[in-house]
Amino acid sequence: MSENHLIHMSEDKSDLGKVEISPEVIEIIAGIAASELDGVAMLRGNFASGVAERLGRKSSHGKGVKVDLGDDGVNIEVFLITNYGVSIPDVCHKVQENIVQTLKNMTAINVLSVDVHVVGVHFEDKNESEAPKKEQGT
């Protein structure tokens, strides 16, 4: 792991300079890629990330995502809550595929692994399901 905790992109043959990507950027990209899929209710961070978010030090998009930098690439851990009634293995597989594809397209970073941890199931509230029905009947 590098000392300054930045990912150095492969250097081109041009002499325009170097490109570095912060792990926080990887967390945000992976978080958005995971949360945009059907079946994912929300991402879940730990207590420390919640405090940092409230203090304005961390974006909520990276919440629930942990990035470990290695010499050969990155390892990503995602902590999420699924919707009730979905196939959890299918949702997790789609999350893994979407994160890898999105990071490959946006950053060309080698993703070594995407570990998905399902930490809860979100049940639909009765108020949420009844509200649209009442509006349609009026």
What's this entry about, in short?
By secondary structure, the protein is of the alpha+beta class.
Give helix % range: 25-40%
Cα gyration radius (Å): 18 Å
Main beta-sheet strand count, sense and barrel state: 4 strands, mixed
Distance between the termini: 61 Å
What is the number of helices? 4
**Helix-strand topology string:** EEHEHEEHEH
Question: Helix/strand-derived class?
Answer: alpha+beta
Low-confidence stretches: 47-53
Count the beta strands: 6
Shape type: elongated
**Nearest-integer average pLDDT:** 81
Binned strand content: 25-35%
Structure description:
- The chain has 138 residues and is an alpha+beta fold.
- The chain is 38% helix and 25% strand.
- It is built from 4 helices and 6 strands, in the order E-E-H-E-H-E-E-H-E-H.
- The chain has helices spanning 23-35, 47-54, 88-107, 126-137, and strands at residues 7-8, 20-21, 40-43, 65-69, 74-83, 111-122.
- The strands form 2 sheets. Strands 3, 4, 5 and 6 form a 4-stranded mixed sheet that branches.
- Helix 1 (23-35) packs across helix 3 (88-107).
- The longest helix is centred in the C-terminal third of the chain and has 20 residues, at 88-107.
- The chain is elongated, with a radius of gyration of 18 Å.
- The termini are far apart.
- Residues 47-53 have low confidence and may be disordered.
